Inverse folding.
């Protein structure tokens, strides 16, 4: 048994409790009044909160609180109020034609700010924050759109997506001519060389015989989608092969890879994920960006 | 280590090793087509290693009864070394994770090194590896001295320490293989969880058995905190991890809870893990090492009692504040807010009790970096508990929730409070444990202190800024009533703060490395052995029969 001896601490003037553990003593200082004060204050606050707000469970129900506040109602009401505030301009965008909206500078200002956020949250993951695309994902500001670049066409592409689960989805597939053994290895390269020559008229180092052979292979295998002039077909989502825009790369290697392994890009359907209003804003936002870019 | 075990204990150790090895072998065979198989192999090797090490010295002479007149500190020594090793590892991984947020490509292409896998490696290593080993090491040290009784046997503490570290290794290696329950701070799967329960029960029994042998009439407040830590963590761990494994040979299990009940159980666990692992345990540490290092009596015995019961009672209700504005019924959120607010009073009473204890010793705080670690820890404890109660208020939470503010809050607590009180306690106890006059280099302790403090402040300020900017960007509307910023815009705005955070973390890591070096040199340098009969005089115990 340790000897229980209370002593007075010279620094604080308080007595110790008389216990000692391995040299540690404790002062018998009374609990400062502030502690009781703030504890009472906190408890009063809590009790007040419980009386006013939903607080304690009662079996299958709970105390609802005098203020009658319920977080579900609060959210529902604030969503309603926000929608009412926005209806000044949302109704116009919903009802007016694309052309009419485009000629209304005030509405287009809203389209730009709202569209920028919508695009950033929904489209930028693939197409980039600036909508300039990247390998495998088209540049939306300048390049031709596979399924057409008119307002209604863009609007519809956003709605149904490309190769998506939507019933009306836009469908497009570039077959894997090499991998699926429709063309021998050498022919794939010949066809690629010909396709390359279409957009690289100035290329000097191409063997004319190869290009010519590729042209025959192209005529036999590719024209049904890309057309006799290789200018593509928006109905089928077949790209124009004579211009400078490429989703999967326009160098000889990339074209060769595309013909060998095929391509089947995917764009999600946004019907059901974005409201018609939001999709219309995005369409207008893209048209605006395309108009602004050279 | 083996030489200190009695013949009987060696026999038990081999039996335990055998059981562990057989369990590991069965797991390994049943799960040979599953990641659990590798863990089965690991457990098998751990069991074999125990059998081999004990068996090799099985016939070594038994320890003399003279040992019973001294405290048994070897497990504490090993615990301190393990703690600091986990600290360096865990902080290094943490800083790596921080740089990944600056540059996501820093995975070096491995699946194991992706953010989602090494982030829990960081949290488990620092919380359970660094913090947990620190708690075990100091609790065994404090328990014996404040009870004036030796641990009841030599085997149980080693079982707890090594078993616990086996759990940590299983956890950390599991994450990298993709084994996780996806419950924050409770990621390890069912087999590791069951093992931890066994270890933890033995830990609690060591406490009860030693207290039963105590020669002091009263149980010191540190032990109340340490016991609350052990007991409540056991309850939390068991309830939150109730799950049904797919099969004995599969690492995957399904939780007993689903939907909002699962979320509530998880955050009841999560918040009380903060309360009882990261707070109660370390308050136990503080209540011993702060008065000893400062040479001052505890400011108020009564305040420590009030705080203890306040903290243990109020914390239990606060978990729902993690789920504001979710599917959780609002009445549960109300209880979470109100109890979080009331909790502030006992929390500040504890911090105040610590700081007021230093009255009369402030000159020591100025001169002694070890004591300054503890002082700063108490200050950060006060800051963090205030911030926590504040963030629990729904309207504040609507801004702070899901932002970096939460990360800043957690690290103010984890770096400023938990790590600082642990470093302080380790710097105090290393010379006592290894019988040295002091640390190898006081200057390095000083450097560690300032690096740690600078790192913490940079980290926390970066995350406060980042979090508040994020929160404001997410809720800013333009004139037409639509969101002004996309999520990606907020990511771009956070980048400079992520760089700052990673730099702050690097400071903290360098400090911990200096600490590890300093501790290692103190242990390894025989020239430092205390000249005057020990770094800290110990009483000779009246020999009690070992159990």
């Amino acid at each position: 048994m340790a000897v229980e001896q209370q002593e007075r601490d010279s620094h604080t003037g308080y007595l110790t409790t008389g216990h000692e553990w391995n040299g540690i003593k404790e002062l018998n200082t009374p609990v400062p009044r502030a502690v009781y004060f703030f504890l009472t204050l906190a408890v009063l606050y809590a009790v007040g909160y419980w009386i006013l707000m939903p607080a304690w469970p009662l079996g299958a129900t709970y105390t609802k609180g005098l203020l009658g506040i319920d977080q579900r109602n609060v959210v529902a009401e604030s969503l309603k109020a926000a929608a009412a505030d926005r209806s000044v301009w949302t109704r116009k965008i919903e009802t007016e034609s694309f052309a009419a909206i485009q000629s209304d500078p005030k509405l287009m200002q809203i389209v730009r700010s709202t569209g920028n956020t919508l695009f950033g949250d929904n489209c930028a993951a693939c197409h980039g924050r600036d909508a300039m695309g990247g390998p495998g994902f088209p540049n939306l500001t300048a390049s031709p759109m596979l399924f057409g670049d008119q307002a209604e066409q863009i609007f519809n592409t956003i709605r149904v997506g490309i190769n998506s689960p939507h019933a009306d989805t836009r469908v497009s597939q570039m077959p894997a001519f090499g991998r699926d053994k429709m063309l021998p290895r050498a022919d794939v390269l010949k066809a690629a060389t010909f396709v390359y020559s279409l957009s690289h008229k100035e290329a000097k180092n191409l063997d004319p015989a190869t290009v010519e052979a590729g042209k025959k292979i192209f005529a036999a295998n590719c024209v049904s989608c890309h057309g006799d002039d290789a200018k593509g077909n928006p109905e089928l989502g077949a790209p124009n092969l004579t211009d400078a825009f490429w989703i999967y790369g326009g160098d000889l290697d990339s074209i060769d890879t595309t013909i060998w392994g095929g391509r089947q890009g995917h764009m999600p359907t946004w019907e059901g994920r974005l409201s018609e209003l939001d999709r219309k804003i995005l369409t207008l936002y893209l048209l605006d960006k395309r108009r602004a870019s050279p | 280590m083996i030489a200190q075990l009695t013949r009987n204990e060696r026999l038990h150790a081999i039996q335990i090793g055998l059981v562990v090895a057989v369990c590991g072998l069965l797991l390994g065979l049943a799960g040979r087509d599953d990641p659990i198989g590798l863990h089965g192999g690991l457990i098998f090797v751990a069991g074999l290693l125990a059998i081999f090490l004990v068996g090799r010295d099985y016939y070594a002479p038994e320890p003399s009864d003279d040992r019973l007149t001294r405290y048994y500190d070897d497990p504490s020594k090993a615990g301190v070394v393990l703690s600091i090793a986990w600290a360096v590892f865990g902080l290094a991984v943490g800083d790596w994770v921080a740089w990944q947020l600056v540059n996501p490509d820093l995975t070096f292409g491995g699946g194991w090194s992706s953010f989602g896998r090494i982030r829990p490696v960081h949290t488990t290593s620092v919380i359970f590896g660094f913090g947990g080993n620190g708690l075990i090491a100091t609790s065994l040290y404090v328990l014996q001295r404040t009870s004036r009784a030796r641990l009841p046997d030599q085997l149980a503490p080693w079982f707890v320490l090594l078993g616990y570290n086996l759990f940590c290794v299983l956890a950390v290696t599991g994450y990298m293989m993709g084994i996780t329950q996806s419950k924050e701070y409770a990621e390890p799967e069912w087999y590791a969880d069951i093992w931890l329960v066994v270890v933890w029960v033995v830990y609690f029994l060591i406490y009860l058995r030693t207290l039963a042998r105590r020669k002091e009439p009263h149980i010191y407040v540190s032990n109340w905190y340490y016991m609350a830590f052990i007991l409540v963590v056991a309850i939390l761990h068991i309830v939150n991890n109730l799950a049904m494994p797919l099969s004995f040979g599969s690492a995957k299990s399904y939780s007993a809870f689903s939907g909002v009940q699962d979320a509530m159980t998880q955050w009841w666990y999560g918040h009380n893990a903060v309360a009882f692992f990261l707070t109660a345990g370390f308050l136990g540490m503080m209540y011993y090492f702060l008065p000893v290092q400062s040479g001052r009596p505890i400011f108020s015995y009564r305040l420590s009692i009030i705080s203890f019961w306040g903290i243990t009672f109020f914390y239990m209700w606060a978990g729902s504040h993690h789920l504001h504005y979710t599917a959780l019924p609002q009445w549960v959120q109300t209880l979470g807010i109100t109890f979080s607010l009331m909790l502030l009073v006992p929390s500040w009473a504890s911090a105040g009790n610590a700081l007021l204890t230093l009255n009369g010793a402030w000159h020591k705080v100025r001169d002694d970096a070890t004591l300054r670690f503890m002082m700063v820890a108490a200050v950060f404890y006060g800051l963090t508990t205030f911030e926590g109660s504040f963030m629990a208020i729904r309207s504040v939470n609507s801004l702070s929730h899901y932002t970096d503010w939460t990360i800043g809050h957690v690290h103010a607590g984890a770096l400023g409070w938990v790590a600082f009180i642990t470093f302080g306690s380790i710097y105090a106890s290393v010379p006592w444990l290894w019988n040295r006059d002091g640390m190898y280099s006081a200057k390095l302790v000083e450097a560690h202190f300032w690096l740690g403090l600078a790192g913490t402040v940079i980290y926390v300020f970066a995350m406060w800024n980042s979090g508040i900017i994020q929160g404001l960007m997410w809720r800013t509307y333009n004139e037409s009533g639509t969101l002004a910023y996309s999520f990606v815009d907020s990511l771009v705005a956070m980048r400079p703060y992520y760089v700052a955070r990673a730099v702050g973390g690097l400071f903290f890591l360098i400090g911990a490395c200096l600490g590890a070096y300093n501790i290692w040199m103190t242990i390894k340098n025989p020239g430092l052995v205390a000249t005057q009969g020990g770094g800290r005089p110990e009483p000779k115990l009246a020999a009690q029969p070992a159990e």
Remarks:
- The beta strands of chain B are 243-245, 253-255.
- The first strand of chain B starts at residue 243 and ends at 245.
